[in-house]
Specification:
With about 350 residues, the protein is mostly beta strands. The protein has a domain at about 5-125 and about 315-345. The chain contains 5 helices and 20 strands. The strands form 5 sheets. A 4-stranded antiparallel β-sheet has the order 18-1-20-19. Strands 2, 3, 4 and 7 form a 4-stranded antiparallel β-sheet that branches. The chain starts with a helix and ends with a strand.
């Protein structure tokens, strides 16, 4: 498919979002109807339930901000926004099981108050950023790493602007790539005096619309053993513009923490520390894209760099429909949603008990 077709796809997604805005005022009227079991068309009923989740903010309206609050009624909309399908950054983050304050499926199911409707929710960037380390060149004082960067959707190239960062011990480097037609190469140079492993992070914006964003992160060895999987040493939980850092092992010593967006980067301010956890304040950046938060530190003699995104996506939560034999047909609904003005893809799946 030519790039013009991809641009048309994204443009159409935005048009659909605008058309759906006319439905926002009717969202509060949906609940009495979708909660009625006599609602005879299953596909239509489940569609209304899926929209209800995304168009209503739940009770209390700010339940996402406090990790100890369990909503009485489930809804993901941003209570501070007048736009439809604008989801709350903290409510979305609390759907991710990696977040220490994540809701369980039982809590979501109970708060939805639809006892005959099982559901799952998936939220992810509209396109993918795929990173591959293709070559390494070692010299006396520095090492050059060659990365291939692909931006695509379902295998179709997506034209994008890229902002690239490299993080290692006491090191933050940035490179800007003007344009990618779906695949490009970039060299990253690190001095051999820098302690690794390192993280190569890429934030991408679609050329057709700067609010269509994605990201990718690649961990690689640099004068170090191969990096451990992300989440080996820390559990990172962003919420209410605070990054909660829980230590997986005792004796961890933190070095630096960073927040990265397309146009901004910042060293995070630590607001508390104990022998089991720490917290950092996350800035309110103006960029319409996710904030990558990276925390570096040491576990004994092992250096690490771990990361998460805020909102904490991609994520998938809810019922597992893959092997279900107790549910009727499962209905799938995909929406273009916004979080902090950036566009993402949200898929809601619903199914009920067999008759």
């Amino acid at each position: 498919m030519p790039a013009i077709s991809v641009d048309t796809f994204f443009a159409c997604s935005l048009m659909v979002l605008l058309v759906l805005s006319a439905m926002a005022s009717a969202s509060k009227l949906l609940y009495p109807h979708i909660n009625n079991k006599s609602y005879d068309n299953a596909a239509k009923r489940y569609r209304e339930i899926s929209k209800y989740m995304l168009l209503n903010h739940g009770t209390p309206s700010n339940w996402g901000e406090d990790g100890q609050t369990v909503p009485e009624k489930f809804g993901l909309a941003d209570a501070h926004s007048d736009y439809p399908y604008e989801l709350d950054i903290d409510k979305v983050s609390r759907l991710n099981s990696e977040n220490a304050y994540a809701l369980s499926y039982a809590q979501m199911f109970t708060a939805l108050k639809m006892p005959d409707a099982s559901f799952s929710i998936e939220i992810k960037p509209t396109f993918e950023v795929i990173l591959n380390l293709t070559a390494t060149y070692q010299f006396a004082s520095e090492t050059v790493y060659q990365f291939e960067i692909s931006t695509e959707k379902h295998g179709v190239p997506v034209e994008a602007e890229l902002k690239c960062y490299t993080v290692a011990e006491n090191y933050l480097g940035g490179n800007y790539v003007n344009f990618s037609d779906g695949k490009t190469a970039l060299n990253v140079t690190l001095q051999n005096s820098v302690v690794g492993p390192a993280l190569f992070s890429v934030l991408a914006r679609a050329i057709c619309n700067a609010k269509i964003v994605s990201f990718g992160v690649y961990a690689f060895a640099h004068n170090s053993p191969e990096p451990k999987p992300n989440g080996t040493f820390l559990r990172l939980s962003p919420l209410n513009y605070t990054l909660d850092v829980a230590f997986i092992y005792s004796g961890i010593n933190l070095s630096r923490a960073y927040a990265l967006t397309f146009n901004y980067s910042s060293t995070l301010t630590q607001t508390s520390i104990s022998n089991q956890s720490a917290t950092y304040s996350v800035p309110h950046f103006l960029d319409a894209d996710p904030t990558l938060t990276i925390v570096t530190g040491w576990n004994s003699t092992v250096f690490f760099a771990e990361w998460t995104a805020y909102p904490q996506i991609p994520l998938q939560t809810g019922a597992d429909f893959a092997d279900s034999v107790t549910l009727s047909n499962v209905f799938t609904y995909t929406y273009t949603i916004t979080i902090n003005s950036a566009l993402y893809e949200c898929t809601v799946r619903l199914g009920g008990p067999r008759e």
